[in-house]
Amino acid sequence: MEFEPKILGIACNWCTYTGADLAGTTRLQYPQNLRVVRVMCSSRINPSFIFRAFQLGADGVLVGGCHPGDCHYNTGNLYARRRLAVTRKILEFAGIEPGRFRVEWISASEGNKFAEVVTEFTEQVKTLGPQTKFKIEQQPSLEKI
Amino acid sequence: MSRIGVFVCHCGLNIAKTIRVSELAQFASTLPDVVVAKDYKFMCSTPGQEMIASDIKEHKLDRIIVAACSPLMHEQTFRKVIENAGLNKYLVTIVNIREQVSWVTHDVEEGTSKAKALLNGAVYRARLLAPLTSRFIDVSPDVMVIGGGIAGIQAALELANTGKKVYLVEKNSTIGGHMAQFDKTFPTLDCSACILTPKMDAVLQHKNITMMTYCEVTEVKGYVGNFDITVKQKARYVDHDKCNACLACTEKCPGKGVSEWDEGLVKRKAIYIPFPQAVPQKPVIDRDACTFFIKGKCRLCEKVCEQKAIDFEQQDTFSTVKVGAVIVATGYDLMNTKPLVQYGYGKYPGVYSALEVERLFNSAGPTSGKVTLRDGKEPQAIAILHCIGSRDKNNYEHCSRVCCMYSLKFAHLFKEKTSADVYQFYIDMRAPGKGYEEFYNRIIEEDVKFIRGKGARVAESADEPGRMIVEAEDTITGKFIKLPVDMVVLSPAMIPRSDSKDIARLFNLSTDKYGFFMERHPKLAPLSTMSEGIFIAGVCQSPKDIPDTVAQANGAAAEALTIVVKDKMELEATTAMVNPASCCACQNCIRVCPYGAPFFNEQKGVSEINEALCKGCGLCASVCPASAIIARHFTNDQVLAEIEGLMEF
Question: Chain B contacts of A30, Cβ < 8 Å?
Fold first, then answer.
């Protein structure tokens, strides 16, 4: 059976999440490996969200926000951009292939771009195979949370 | 332990055709803390809502999960449902299994398993949700309308008639917009000025409208209900309080500027009113054309002005206005067709753009309504080329919607005012509006020639100097046509105003790829934007005709009214808060917040957050090195739990 990666998406409410909705409204087809978490702004993304996803077995993480300069909260995505750049370095340092982490600026009108990015990214993660470096086999049970 | 109810919506077949909904509900019932799980055809319908409400009571549910369409669609609907059933409204979680699952795959297996993962994530998250208390703020009762075209005028009048105070901001020195340039309007051929100028006058006379012409918005602060908008009054060099509109100055002025109102076909004075029916009837000085500003002497206008209203020292002034809601109605530009060299606009004097032709027809225009070419001769053959730049993948893919109809109107007026042969070069004839198809049929009867084929090129005639050849393929006969004409009318794409990007930035509006403002929802919220309290009307949203623009303006006025009619309004409770026990007083949050919501409490030595200013982006929570800031409704624990749930399947 072909390897089907698990991909976590974290999308800002105003641009990328809405763009993803537009992809749906326009009935664009893309691979179903992506599971999206909605946050209000990409600046809300704590790097721990990304590390945790890899620990929990995500094969790839895709972050989406408004285009720089178009942030719903004026400057949030600029902070996110810097923070995610550092996050990428840490991931690389920890041995995660750079191809497993991607940040894209997708506006509310770019349903096409959303579908394209997801398709492309899913293919890329597929070729990288399962992510084992960060994955914790013994997952904590729910009660610990 | 929470008691979760899961409600899976079929959305007719929208969801049910690619997700096995009953299996999804069955799956949900096996998840931790889920007490009841059901599926139903339309969860948002009254029976669906009643089902949720009665299950809340019957099973004593304290968390609700609705797996349905996007939260941007119905989150508010379901929040109301559970609030009416006695739950805190922030305890509902929406799982988007339509826009982000069933509509983006055809595969039932894939769809169902993704839906399960999303639902699992939602259950994990729901268990950690906390009830939140809404905030109420005072609402400023006034409204600002930006753009003084027909959309802005209509919206301003509607609002003013309800007793609300309206600030109408217009960047030109008169209101009226493009509609003031037209001669006739399709399909009724009634005179544009006759229906517009009374409205312009009504704006001027209305006691509730403050007209701010020759003004531009430079800064927007605040949020829905309480915007503080800074408006720049550009220097007019004429004191409008003193000016009595005698216009003696405009007669004496030796300066020459390009008449924007006549689309550059003629010159106007440097001190001018754009057109005789302008509102207000008071002149401004165009610095770039004024002899005094260029050469340092002249001041003729000052000499003739009995009111001593001319003031060459005048500077731009800024004022701040407080409003509760804003309507953006900034309209359109026509595409510059010069780069489309194949049509020869700007090269051959016989090629005109649509708005120039409007001016030629207009009795107040440069030719007093006579259709003559630039050399003064009457045209013998006229070609009207549709879809110049629009419906064109190389330029603008959208249909500009009004060109077919105004081209028909042009044909009629050409027939009325000249003896010329009139040819329409069209791709498809689009006449979807009340009376439009009838108008099309009427023009067919008027001996106008229709050639189904897009004009491909305009070239100089080799045989007859001064004439042009229009080349096209007639797609009905399959033949190539070379038609000699002496006037070509281009119908260019309608595009957003060149400065609409600035407006988008000021008001935080999303735009589509061409720069038209994005509506919150294409069907159900066509006048709202992603920025609460900012509404859009008219062509700035997408090309449309006057009836649709007016309808939108009325709609936007009603939408704005829903905000400013109340004294207080509810704000999202999803703000950030500081846990003082963990705060390390680094003040990072204060430095990064775009709204100035966090402040430092010197006495306690910790940061605090002014919730009235917080918009809930969560930036501060992520920069807090001590994790002392909690972004309500998107706490670390909640998001991490959701991620865990998503990754389990």
Answer: 104-105
Strands B317-323 and B487-492, by their bridges, are: unpaired
Which regions in chain A score pLDDT beneath 50? 144-145
CA distance A115 to chain B (A): 9
ipTM over 0.85: yes
Enter the tokens of residue B441: 């049929």
SS3 B438: helix
The answer to whether B529 and B510 have CB atoms below 8 angstroms apart is: yes
* Strands annotated E in A1-145: 7-12, 34-39, 60-65, 101-105
Q: B588 and B534 share a domain?
A: no
| Range 119-148 of B in CB contact (< 8 A) with A | 121, 124, 128
Report the candidate in B230, B203, B236, B231 with the shortest Cα–Cα distance to residue B215.
B231
Q: Are B546 and B436 in contact (CB under 8 A)?
A: no
Q: Which residue is it, tokens 């996007």?
A: B70
B63-98 tens-digit pLDDT:
999 999 999 999 999 999 999 999 999 999 999 999
Domain membership flag for residue B313: no
Q: What are the pLDDT digits (tens) for B543-597? A: 999 999 999 999 999 999 999 999 998 888 999 999 999 999 999 999 999 888 9
Q: State the DSSP H helix or E strand holding residue B153, giving kind and residue range, or none if neither.
A: helix B150-161
Is-contact B638 B630, C-beta < 8 A?
Answer: no
Q: How far apart are CA B112 and CA B96, in angstroms?
A: 13
CB-CB under 8 Å, A38 with B636: no
Q: Does the structure show a pLDDT above 70 at B291?
A: yes
b/e sequence B227-256, b meaning 16+ C-beta within 10 Å: bebebbbbbbbbebeebeeebebbeebebe
Q: Residue B8 has which token pair?
A: 């899976």
DSSP summary character for residue B377: P
Decide which of B283, B304, B325 is a domain's last residue: B304
- The overall average pLDDT reported for chain B is 95
Cβ B285 vs Cβ B236: under 8 Å: yes
Angle between helices A47-55 and A76-93 (to 10 degrees): 40
B633: alpha, beta or left? (left if phi > 0; alpha if psi -120 to 50) = left
Segment B97-137, tens digit of pLDDT? 999 999 999 999 999 999 999 999 999 999 999 999 988 88
Helix (H) or strand (E) holding B55: helix B46-58
Is B602 found in the same domain as B529? no
Considering the four listed CATH numbers 3.40.50, 3.40.30, 2.60.40, 3.30.300, the one that applies to the domain covering A7-144 is 3.40.50
> Structural domain of residue B203, as residue ranges?
147-232+515-560
Cα-only R_g, chain A: 15
Beta carbons of B617 and A6 less than 8 Å apart = no
Q: How far is A133 from chain B (nearest CA, A)?
A: 16
- For chain A, say whether B32 makes contact (Cβ under 8 Å): yes
CATH code assigned at B213: 3.50.50.60
Total beta-carbon pairs less than 8 A apart between chain A and chain B: 151
Same domain, B91 and B173: no
**Structural domain total, chain B:** 5
Segments making up each domain of chain A, as ranges: 7-144
Which residue in B75, B95, B99, B613 has the most chain A C-beta atoms within 10 A of its own C-beta, making it the best mutation to test that interface? B99
Q: Give the model's pLDDT for residue A145.
A: 46
Mean pLDDT of B279-292: 94
Q: Print burial letters for B387-410: b (CB count within 10 Å at least 16), e (below 16).
A: bbbbbbeebbebbbbbbbbbbbbb
- The alpha carbon of A91 is separated from its chain's Cα centroid by a whole number of angstroms, namely 14
